[in-house]
Amino acid sequence: MSVRTEPPGRPPAVTVRIATWNINSVTARLPKLLEWLESAKPDVLCLQELKCAADAFPYEAVRELGYETAAHGNGRWNGVAIVSRIGLDDVVRGLPDQPGYFADGALLPEVEPRAIAATCGPVRVWSVYVPNGREVGHAHYQYKLEWLEALRKAATEDAAGPRPFAVLGDFNIAPTDDDVFDAAAFEGLTHVTPVERAALAALDGIGLQDVLPRPLKYDHPYTYWDYRQLAFPKNRGMRIDLTYANKPFVEAVTDSYVDREARKGKGTSDHAPVVVDLDL
């Protein structure tokens, strides 16, 4: 965050860089994470798919770069965190009334660590990792829809407030056909069904807007590419890492882009960071 001097009579302008990244194992990707923090210099970074317990997060490594962290994870394939160098207050782990999911053979539903919120300087953010859904008709698909409804309810008050607010993360939904490389290839699959898209669009109803990345190299700025079949070099991707923000946040956006450079090379996540710059 930087403060810019304005003419007399106007408050100083504050520039804030906020990003989201499905890291696909913070342990395996730690060198990539530290490298990216140093080069991109986000003020706030929302992480998903930690694949580590909260007490195993590499707090000290990111602290050495000037960041504090709030993490929420249980060591399985999910987990979320918020990394900030502009403050980390009013942390909330999990959604109010968040549904649980009966894992295979489980006697009780597990309330998974898929959401965390914090106030970071002048903004309030949620980092979310929406359930995958697996396949249409699966119990996990219904769980995904219930989870999205819990998110909508949890975000309603902040969405209507005067403070810049955004929900960032891996939504596991491509909002439109333009957000996948080939709509026909996804026919009948999750991530693109009308029901999922309607659940995502319900966030519009509480005053949140999809902040679109500015195309840099390609017309359609995807955020995820499968590791297989040369999907990244061929740009056979999906835009599923999203920023849904309220009016005060959207009006402050000066730039938004997908950092494809972070997806290149070996040992990367299959997702790229999405960066949003604000001038408040």
From TrEMBL:
It is an enzyme of class 3 (hydrolase). Transmembrane segments: none annotated. InterPro entries: AP_endonuc_1, AP_endonuclease_F1_BS, Endo/exonu/phosph_ase_sf, Endo/exonuclease/phosphatase, ExoIII-like. Residues 19-271 form the Endonuclease/exonuclease/phosphatase domain. GO terms for biological process: DNA repair. Mg(2+) binds at N22, E49, D170, N172, D270, H271. GO terms for molecular function: DNA binding; double-stranded DNA 3'-5' DNA exonuclease activity; endonuclease activity; metal ion binding. The record marks H271 as: Interaction with DNA substrate. The record marks N172 as: Transition state stabilizer. Probably binds two magnesium or manganese ions per subunit. The active site is at Y129, D170, H271. Its EC number is 3.1.11.2. The record marks D241 as: Important for catalytic activity. Belongs to the DNA repair enzymes AP/ExoA family. This is Exodeoxyribonuclease III. It comes from Kitasatospora xanthocidica.
